[in-house]
Fold non-specific serine/threonine protein kinase.
Amino acid sequence: MTDDAPLLGERYRLGSRVGGGAMADVHRAMDTRLQRLVAAKVFRSATDELGRKRFAEEARILAGLSHPGLVTVHDFSADADELFLIMELIEGGTLADVAEWGPMPPEDVADIGGKLADVLAYVHDNDIVHRDVKPTNVLVGNDGRAYLADFGVSRLADAAGRLTDSGMVVGTTTYMAPEQVSAGDVGFPADVYSLGLVLLECVTGRVEYPGGPDAAVARLVRPPQIPQGIPGRLRRGLMAMLCADPARRISAEQAGDVLSGRTTEVMAPVPAPMPVPPPRIPQQRVQRPPTTSMPIQQPPSRSPVAPVAAGALAVAAVAALAVAFWPESNEIDVLPPVSGAPGVERLPADLENLERLVRG
């Protein structure tokens, strides 16, 4: 870059173009204030005041994120004639450049996949959907570290008015999830599916669904072909990440755990809804009018006291009958006087007196 190159935001001197797409171009740039190299992502779309305000809000959210696997956002502009992001410059290439050399070692794919899934989990925790996970958006530094770039670009593009103006769908057809192809709800699971396709391409050396309308529909009728002879953690992770049904797909956090070997649990536990018992309505006591009918006899209790109570009732009933039918007399029968001193010797006499009393 030369000293007469235009300044962006009166601070960043633009250099060579290093990448870009339908919405923006990425340039190497020099921060003339801090004298450091940065990456400048310049959006081509113009927008109105409301769009610029939304762009600024989204850029502040992205600038507030901090993760070792994210390309850091340093600065932004939402002026009427300048719409750009200033980001950390990663010297190196992309995952697409690495994949051009052929299939990568499966263990390396699992390692890089675990790190990228952890980055996605962090982004998702901040309520951001990437929507365009693909090999060219994974930067590989000269030190071998992988970084996820263009996170949140769909929200910035929407703020810039591209989605409203052109009706374009953010995302690359080759790596879209089934719900993106069928115009369904696009959320966090779509990023997990796209990352799964990226990792599958790295380990097989071929694109599973090449671009084009036919390929877009192919994933709706044919599941991805996952090779058999790869490490278990990679195979389990890919199978769970590439479920056609987003409700059955594992989360980015779980994908990171599986691919890194931190766990072997591959399916997201989907808790069944707990049955809600009907509300308990207090029973109101019904006041019944008095009745002259005989009370209903209750069934005998199983309590061990029941036989004793029943016996007591029987004795009471017999006693009542004896009193009712006992002959009326004005004389009160009394026992005869004792037959002698208490002891065994007087027992016959006491029994004779008792028998006489009973016989009347």
